[in-house]
Amino acid sequence: MTSRAASSNDICPITGKTYSQRDFVLVDHLHPALAERIRQDHPALAADSRISRAAVDKYRLRYVEELLRQERGELTKLDSEVARSLAEGSMVSANVEESYDERRTLGERLSDGLAAFGGSWPFLIFFALALGVWIIINVASGPEAFDPYPYILLNLLLSCLAAVQAPIIMMSQRRQEAKDRMRSLNDYRVNLKAELEIRHLHEKIDHLITRQWERLAEIQKLQIELLQERR
Known about the structure:
By secondary structure, this protein is mostly helical. It has eight helices and four strands. A two-stranded antiparallel ribbon has the order 1-2. It has a two-stranded antiparallel sheet with strand order 3-4.
């Protein structure tokens, strides 16, 4: 049992650690630029050498960071996160609405609710009915009206309502701007990772096509040699 378990593991020539056979890949099967970057630090590696996926992820992260640094100069924290997710194969997209709503305080939820209600048709209808009832009662009461024309008390209440409603709407708009910034940063992460993935796929396809043409040329050369021998 011990010898069988030991035979299923191997030591990575880069990290020096022991991994399972399933965690190894051939250097020749990697992206050409990535394989060349690995051979710069480890020139003794042959084309049929096998290295661990942990080492591949490490060098893939370096390769992506160097690529971004060549195009953008100094890397930002956002670029580093995208490079790390690309090397590890993890996702960078996130649900901004859920993450933002979970972090809201009670006051923020209340202000958002008041701002949403203040800009809705039910509020406008209720407000118009309240104004109409207020005016009708004071007109019908005549000299005994508690707020006769020009409705000074009503103007005071409307001014107080506007003074309170304006900061609430501004707070809600400021949080909406923060949510939009989070959404734009999330879109930037996704777009940058997609751009790098597409570029990686194009280079990998070009590499595979080149290798395929080389193999076809070798097969054709062998066929020509066989035909010449038969003659």
